[in-house]
Specification:
Mean pLDDT: 86
Largest sheet: none
Helix content: 55-70%
Number of strands: 0
Order of helices and strands: HHHH
Strand content: under 5%
Shape: globular
Low-confidence stretches: none
Distance between the termini: 24 Å
């Protein structure tokens, strides 16, 4: 089972506003749509911060094999 820091990231000023808004929306999204939405947030974190792809994926609770590309 993956552990997600997404609930904490919502409140971090270090996380881009667009990613925080997406994380808030994910919590209300149907379960079957969450993995795709979390992957999008990981891509945002990767693109807009100094976090590398694998770390961005892990922060939102995804396995590293998903890719940020």
């Amino acid at each position: 089972m993956a552990f997600s820091l997404a609930p904490l990231l919502i409140h971090s000023d270090s996380v881009p506003a667009e990613a925080r808004e997406a994380l808030r929306a994910i919590s209300a999204a149907p379960v079957e749509e969450r993995k795709s939405a979390l992957r999008s947030v990981a891509r945002l974190l990767y693109a807009e911060t100094a976090i590398d792809c694998s770390d961005a994926l892990e922060l939102v609770g995804l396995q590293n094999n998903c890719g940020c590309g």
